[in-house]
Amino acid sequence: MEISGMDELGIFAEVESQARSYCRSFPVVFDQAQGSYLYDLKGQAYIDFLSCAGSVNYGHNPKPVKAAVIDYLQRDGIQAALDMHSRAKQEFLFNFRKIILEPRALSYKMQFTSPTGTSVVESAIKLARKVTGRQHIVAFTNGFHGMSNTSLGLTGNRDNRQPGVDPYVFRMPYDGYLKGLDSVEYFERLLNDNSSGMDLPAAVILETIQGEGGINVASADWLVRLRKLTAKHDILLIIDDIQAGCGRTGTFFSFEPSGITPDMVCLSKSLSGYGLPFALLLHRPELDQWSPGEDNGTFRGNTLAFVAATNTLQEFWSDDRLVKHIQANEMLLKTWLANVTERFAVHIKQVRGRGLFYGIEFHDASLTAAVTRACFARRLIIERCGPEDQVLKLMPALTIDAETLQTGLASIFEAMQQVLEYPSSSESDTDTDTLRFYQ
Description:
Layout: H1 7-15, H2 22-25, E1 30-34, E2 37-40, E3 45-48, H3 51-54, H4 63-74, H5 87-101, E4 109-112, H6 117-132, E5 137-140, H7 149-154, E6 169-172, H8 183-192, E7 203-206, E8 209-210, E9 216-217, H9 220-232, E10 236-240, E11 264-267, E12 280-283, H10 303-316, H11 321-343, E13 348-354, E14 357-362, H12 365-377, E15 380-381, E16 383-385, E17 391-394, H13 402-421, H14 432-438
Parallel strand pairs: 3-15, 5-6, 5-7, 7-10, 10-11
Antiparallel strand pairs: 1-2, 2-3, 4-12, 8-9, 11-12, 13-14, 14-17, 16-17
Helix pairs in contact: 4-10, 5-10, 11-13, 12-13
């Protein structure tokens, strides 16, 4: 049956749960996608600066990966495989070790968990507690680690946390959270003081760049000192690289510029390179103390994701072309950000980020929302983050060409100009009837 008019959106409002979120910001029905563009049912193109929350870092339907996926399907490659041996998994293990781990002198074991980001975080915490025999985990202000029980306990935002989440979490200030406070020094004092009230934790978990928390960037010095402190006290260091990893910050792992080696690394989102569910826990070999089947999941053998991931590694990470491309686009982006910050200095509190992972923080969160709506009216998909959604979050595809990047940035500038300099017309280009209907 053909759906037209408001019925295009009506079926979602009538049938789909209230839990839906992103669609409320972008009230159209998308049908196709290629590279840095999404297309709605009318064929209208939208530039994508969201990248499916970091799940399609290499753009939509990258052609070499798409070809490999189609070929695998056409030859009836095995799909559901639990954790049995498969050719698809074999090739991924070989290529990930050869292309990613060995050049970085990393010797991690690879564990395939259930295929979501929150699942791999749950597995990492479970393993840390098993290996150390301790319960407490240190997490950080503004951290976000997923929406299941343990992950919610680790998450900083009180709007996300719920009663009954993991109680064995000790919250520490993230780097720069409180001016004048050295949080690593504070942590060390707590560990050394027998009366601090802190039990020796099993692990510390953090994002080196907090995505949902507001694009907060931990300095290399802070990370190095934290790594030394955790090693000194035999505390496992877990890096949640689910959103900041897979090239988003300009290197495959976000922690590479600091030179640290975490005990565990959580990967998901863009690991498959094609938006297919896939999660991977990397951990030091001596931590591999699971009994067979002790941590499992039906879809940890997602062979189609293995195929996509292998071809993503070969296409984008077998040489330095992508890294250089990101660096060139980051220079363009930083120049634009400097100009925008100067132009709208009274409204912008701070700009921060790395690679193609940047945030523009406004003093007034309502302005961030208005800018986002004005961007959508210009057919640019961009979202907000931070504790009050006060940060405009820039996450274009890592493969975006300079011309498309500049076009998207021009749309943001026009949106800011409209909202910040001509506020009376800030909604003029927005279909307000549709927005009200879909909220």
